[in-house]
């Protein structure tokens, strides 16, 4: 016997009656549809509704997950650019690879409260070094996946060569800073050696401290950006001591001298060394490389700008996409 098919109006009436709590016998009497057929079409209707509800739920979940995915990648890109900055101190001795590895250990995915709670937990002594190391490994693994996802979403932007250029510029700048420090120490050593006994006098007045290291660091800080030189000067300190200052009276030498004459001599040596070093290639090279590093960072900022990145992520696909 052929299966009886009902019209949409009949199905709607059966569903309406059943939704109101009518019995199958009453539905049969009021619609003329047998109880067997009414049960079948109502069951089919419920199955379709369940599937539609599931589709809606899944669609909502996917939409939320996609929104979260976009949010995380935008935050990842923002922090990436902020970490790939310009050396802010002549004491920067990390390689570009070290800087990037530091970035990869940041907690980017977790919400701020969750990240803070996790950080607090990791600080507890009972957690131990192993747990902290596992957490670093987890974050690094997670962030490497995000880095891959960002590359997949932005494969048409060609920003990775800029990233490699930044690494090369950073490393060249780091090497130049190391060379600058060597140059400064050599110049200061040569100046002091021209006056027999001066190094001993300076160290005695400074409290038996090796004066070469702090004087070298002071001059490096004064000249490393290749800017116009402000002179080193001296001023009185407490306890009848004297210090060498630079840049608006800020103390830069980690030394105080018992004699004003020797403090003046230290300042004079620093000025001679700074003037001499600024004439060399190392200081100019650092200034040029700092500008190059900054140019690469600014170019990356423009390419990974959220207003540009957001639609590109939405239109493309990666291995972490929820759809």
Ranges where pLDDT stays below 50 over 5 or more residues in a row are none
In round numbers, the mean pLDDT is 83
Strand elements, count: 3
H/E topology pattern: HHHHHHHHHEEEHHH
Cα gyration radius (Å): 36 Å
- Structural shape: rod-shaped
Considering the chains and any ligands shown, give keywords for the structure.
323 residues; rod-shaped; mainly alpha; 12 helices; 3 domains; three-stranded antiparallel β-sheet; 3 strands
Structure in a nutshell:
With 323 residues, the chain is mainly alpha-helical. The chain is built from 12 helices and 3 strands, in the order αααααααααβββααα. The chain has 3 domains: 57 residues, no CATH class; 130 residues, no CATH class; 107 residues.
What is the strand and helix layout of this fold?
Elements lengths: L7 H12 L4 H8 L3 H49 L12 H9 L7 H12 L4 H26 L6 H34 L4 H8 L6 H12 L9 E5 L3 E6 L3 E8 L2 H19 L2 H23 L2 H10 L8
Helix pairs in contact: 1-3, 3-12, 7-9, 7-10, 7-11, 9-10
Word description of this protein:
With 323 residues, the chain is mainly alpha-helical. It has 3 domains: 8-64, no CATH class; 69-173 and 291-315, no CATH class; 178-284. It has helices at residues 8-19, 24-31, 35-83, 96-104, 112-123, 128-153, 160-193, 198-205, 212-223, 260-278, 281-303, 306-315, and strands at residues 233-237, 241-246, 250-257. Strands 1-2-3 form a 3-stranded antiparallel beta sheet, covered by helices on one side. Strand 2 (241-246) and strand 3 form a beta hairpin. Helix 1 crosses helix 3 (35-83) and helix 3 packs antiparallel against helix 12. The model has no long low-confidence stretch (mean pLDDT 83).
């Amino acid at each position: 016997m052929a299966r009886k098919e009902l019209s949409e109006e009949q199905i709607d009436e059966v569903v309406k009656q059943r939704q109101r709590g009518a019995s199958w016998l009453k539905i049969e009497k009021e619609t003329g549809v047998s109880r067997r057929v009414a049960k079948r079409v109502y069951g089919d209707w419920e199955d379709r509704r369940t599937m539609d509800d599931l589709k809606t739920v899944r669609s909502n979940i996917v939409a939320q997950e996609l929104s979260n995915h976009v949010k995380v990648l935008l935050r990842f890109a923002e922090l990436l650019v902020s970490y790939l900055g310009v050396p802010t101190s002549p004491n920067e001795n990390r390689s570009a690879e070290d800087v990037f590895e530091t970035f990869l250990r940041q907690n980017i995915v977790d919400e701020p409260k969750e990240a803070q709670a996790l950080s607090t937990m990791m600080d507890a002594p009972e957690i131990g070094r192993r747990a902290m190391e596992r957490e670093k490994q987890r974050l690094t693994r997670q962030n490497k996946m995000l880095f891959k996802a960002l590359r997949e979403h932005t494969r048409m932007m060609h920003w990775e060569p800029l990233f490699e250029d930044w690494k090369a510029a950073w490393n060249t700048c780091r090497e130049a800073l190391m060379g600058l420090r060597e140059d400064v120490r050599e110049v200061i050593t040569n100046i002091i050696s021209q006056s027999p006994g001066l190094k001993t006098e300076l160290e005695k007045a400074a409290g038996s401290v090796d004066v070469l290291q702090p004087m070298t660091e002071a001059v490096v800080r004064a000249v490393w950006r290749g800017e116009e030189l402000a002179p080193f000067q001296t001023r009185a300190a407490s306890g009848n001591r004297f210090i060498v200052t630079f840049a608006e009276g800020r103390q830069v030498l980690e030394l105080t001298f018992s004699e004003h004459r020797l403090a003046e001599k230290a300042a004079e040596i620093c000025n001679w060394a700074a003037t001499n070093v600024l004439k060399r290639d190392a200081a100019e090279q650092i200034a040029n490389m700092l500008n190059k590093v900054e140019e690469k960072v600014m170019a990356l900022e423009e390419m990974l700008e959220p207003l540009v990145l957001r639609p590109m992520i939405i239109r493309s696909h990666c291995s972490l996409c929820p759809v």
